[in-house]
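Can anyone check this?
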Amino acid sequence: MFRSALSTAIHAALLAGLVATPAAFAQSAPAEDASQAKTLDAVTVTARKREETLQEVPIAVTAFTADALDRLGTRDIADLDAQVPNLTIYAARGSSSTLTTFIRGVGQADPLWGVDPGVGLYLDDVYIARPQGALLDVFDVERIEVLRGPQGTLYGKNTIGGAIKYISRGLPTEFDGNASVTVGNYGQLDVKAAIGGPIAANGGLRARLAVAKLDRDGFGENLVTGADVSDKDVFAVRGQLGTFVNDNLDIQFAFDTVEDQSGVRGAQMLQANRFNAAFFPALGAFPPLADRYDVRNGMPNINDTTIEGASATVNWRATEDLTLKYVLAKRQSDTETNIDFDTTPAQIADVRALYADEQVSHELQANWDGGGRSRGVIGLYAFDGEAGGQVLNNFFNLSFGDTQGTVFTESVALYADWTFDLSDRLSLDVGARYTDEDKRAKVLNRCYTSAAFTTLRDCTPAVLTDDPAAANFDRTINFKNTSPKIALNFDVSDNVMIYGLASRGFKSGGYNIRAQATLVPRSALPFDDEVVDSFEVGAKMGLLDQRLFLNLAAFHNKYEDIQLSVFTANPAGGFFGDFTNAGKGTVQGLEAEYQWLLSDAFTVSGNLAWLDAQYDEFLFAGLDIANEQEFTNAPEFSGAINLEWRTAVGDAGELTARVGYSYQSEVVATTEIIRSNVPPAAPFGRLPISQDGYGLVTAGVVWQSGGPWSVSLQGTNLTDKEYLTTGYNLAQALGVYTGFYGAPRQYSLSVRYDF
């Protein structure tokens, strides 16, 4: 099935002529007849913190305009998964809004504080440090950019895999707005509205307000309580206010808030929990359920997240050549969630987690362009963050413990990125970023006598420590990093550019807040930065009189001190959450993006990707087990093809019809140490949770009236494919072996009015 599907996609892409992204470009056409498009227009992006067209930027970046997102029926940023080469993005395990992102096989699936993501997320130039609530819904958006590969020079730490930039609509010079209602299966009801424009006679004061209320019944049900699982209940607001003092100076304020009261996601037992009969015989047997979203959780259906942010941005054009920009931002979030690992009423692995974080950041940029042979940006960035919480664990209703603490991060960085035109066709881009960061971890992990979590007990009575703390420390470590970049790009012609790029990226180190320091002293020691040296060559081409965009990239990345979150046995029995630097790895691959305007009405677009991710060294318990390990979320093959047809409907506007197919080959969804069913894994160990290759079909029809009205009919996963995105493999210690599935078949009808 895979080879047939992939062959079909490849041949279709090759016959199309090949490469860009459906969303990265817009068809140029007279306003009165958009169906008669003659060429493709490149989208303006800010990947290098200055405005450039997508085809000019010597890095691998995919951009989605608002129109493209609408045509694709994009609900949240996870829907971009198939539309970007080598991007894997989904909601983390039992959450609906906690973000997990991997680019080119690099990311981080552990959402706990003290563990940094591997792909950076930016909302209107503000870095979002924590994944809770970061799976942003798409509304009132201007553009989304996905930068692939390490972005250490311009964006700093935790962009070792890449970066995602979510750019909301700016402040308009004229009054405008929109309102839409969407209904769909599973009781979907979404209401979105936005309004903005000048609020002073001279246009010097402008404002914008956007709101969204997103509701959907659950894909499944808790068979014990009757509550929905995998449902959606989100309320979001974004507002902006700007004063435009003159043509050279403006000050803009923005705020956003999201309240997500969606329930937990449903997980399917992949095998019955062997401890159920032994510890809770009175409850009866709990075999795996037939429905992939139904559960029998004994814990209340609580999964609440609130995120808030505010920023102030000053833009000053100091001279004709120099522009200064200053961004001050503060963000915070709070999450309360119940995690019933075993998915049964039995208290085999019941966890209550509380997360809280806040951050303040400052960024000052100086952007210079004298219209000559050099231009670039210099910046100073400061970050002050605090993330912490408490995790309460109840194992078998016999073992009770908590993980609590806070990680404080203070970081200062100086960066520069400069372009020199060596000739009319050859340019040199050089950059570097220096980061100085302090991380302080306050960790207190304790044991209790009961699920009330009030009376302490000795965590390790067998070794006579008489200590209620598995870990109790307050430590600080300093990290310094220099991430350089150099790129050469050559304009073969006015419409063809080739480039070569060498860069370094890093993900900062820290402390394991789950440490079991009493029995495993090394677990309280800091782990190191993860570092990558990346080499990339590519081409960006506008062919056939700008009717075909073809973008290609080949990369070779060498990783050092790869950070992994794994479960490790402790000497007294049981396990703890370990965080370690595994060793070294090589990740290499090929990417192609394409968009071809075959005729005035017909467009084919999509992407193809090949990825080879291998551990070169993986040290565990003094042994190199690299040959037994696989990278998580790193499919060898992936791709998508979209066919789009536009036609005028007489005097009734324009009709656009789209059908899309995406494919990814087998992927390993969880990170495990033990790969083979031999001691000590036998007899109860299990291989990492994985998903065989699969394809998804989407389709959509959009009618634009030629006036303010538009109607959209969208469908996703039309074949109702069952596919795993992630899961929990705690089979050895807790008998837990569960998987979380992607969304089922969904269809929706939207009506929108623009004014």
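Reply from J.R.: I decoded it. DSSP finds four helices and 45 strands in the chain.
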